[in-house]
Structures are given as C-alpha cells and as structure tokens.
Amino acid sequence: MQTKCTARPEKAAQIGKAGKKGKRPVVVAVSGVKNSGKTTLIEGMLPHLAAAGLRVAVIKHDGHSFPADPPGTDTGRFMAAGALGAAIFDGAKFKLVKHGQADETTLIAQFPEADLILLEGFKHSSWPKLELVRAGNSVAPVCDPATLLALVTDLSTDLPGVPGLPLGDAAGAAKTILDYVNSFRC
C-alpha cells in the first residue's frame, strides 16, 4: 500500500526525504522527564523499525557530564593523559571520542546513511516527538503539543489532536514513527 505524502512542507524542507541518496534522515525525538522510559521504548522500537527496513541511528542527550571512555581502557587512558581525542576500531565498527562541544545537528550529520535518527531527550526542542508520561514519575506532558506525534502513557492524560499510545507499546510507537517516516517518501 502506497502511503500518501502528508508531511508539512516546512518540515519536509528541513528534514528531506528519508531513504533517498543525498537526503538527510528523518529525525524524531523520544522525550519525557528523567526515568520516564525513553531508553526502554527506543530499545523496544528498534527491532520493529529495522524489520521495516529502516537504518536507524540513536543520539542520546546527557544533561550532565558523562565518562567518554571507561577508566583503565586504552582509549580512556589516552584521554586521561591529555589526548584531544581517541578512536578505536575493528573490522565492523568504530568509536571516536573528542573533547569539544557538539549539538544534535552536528551528530546527525555523522549518520548520512541513516533513514531515521531517534533523539533521546530534547523535550523542549522543536523536533517532532513521542513523549512518555509515566504514572509515579510524571503527572502531565511537558512537551509543546504542536511537536507531538503521539503521547505514550499509562495515565488518562488526553491532549486534543495528539494520539495516545499505551506505555510499553513499542510496536505501536514504532508504527507511529514508520507512518511519519513514510509520509516523506513520496
């Protein structure tokens, strides 16, 4: 079944068409307050998105400082000794660590081969997003409703014009994102 192209023109210009050579990937944030289940949802969605044929990258925002490399590893020792950066690679993957500032746009550019990039966090950004609201952790959505593709929650929270998905429904969340990605494939 052919999906009708329904993307808003302003987002289509910003994001490009997924899966087309030379075009930027579609970007969707998975947002919510701390410990709302963002990582768990992304982990659950990835097999569904990969099974649909998407090449997906994930970029996580850390609002605090994180250890770039575990202490005691060779690359960690290089960084601790004052290296500007360190890299490690084998025949199938690589890891690059550099001191310096970056934002999501800089990191998105590192994945030109991706069809979709999931951003973990970015609740106050203008990126289209799924927002998680979990009982005992959140009481209400915190994201701008205009940016929401869906609200993923176990509460009876309802936002007009925003679809709701049950918390833990990784397949449903992946379908929401797939429908969004496919809206750019015209």
With strands numbered from the N-terminus, the spatial order across the biggest sheet is 2-5-1-6-7-8
The averaged pLDDT comes out at 87
Structural class designation: alpha/beta
Measured by DSSP, the beta-strand proportion falls in 15-25%
Chain-wise SSE layout:
Layout lengths: L8 H7 L10 E7 L5 H14 L4 E5 L13 H7 L4 E5 L4 E5 L5 H5 L7 E5 L8 E5 L14 E6 L10 E3 L3 H13 L4
Helix pairs in contact: 2-5
Summarize this structure briefly.
This protein has 186 residues and is an alpha/beta fold.
Write a concise keyword list for the protein shown above.
two-stranded antiparallel sheet; alpha/beta; Rossmann fold; 186 residues; 8 strands; six-stranded parallel beta sheet
Any overview of this molecule?
The protein has helices at residues 9-15, 38-51, 74-80, 104-108, 170-182; strands at residues 26-32, 56-60, 85-89, 94-98, 116-120, 129-133, 148-153, 164-166. The protein is α/β, with parallel strands linked by helices and 186 residues long. It has one domain (9-66, 103-182): Rossmann fold, CATH 3.40.50.300. A 6-stranded parallel sheet has the order 2-5-1-6-7-8. It has a two-stranded antiparallel ribbon with strand order 3-4. Helix 2 (38-51) crosses helix 5 (170-182). The longest helix is centred in the first third of the chain and has 14 residues, at 38-51. The two termini are 12 Å apart. The model is unreliable at 6-20 (pLDDT under 50).
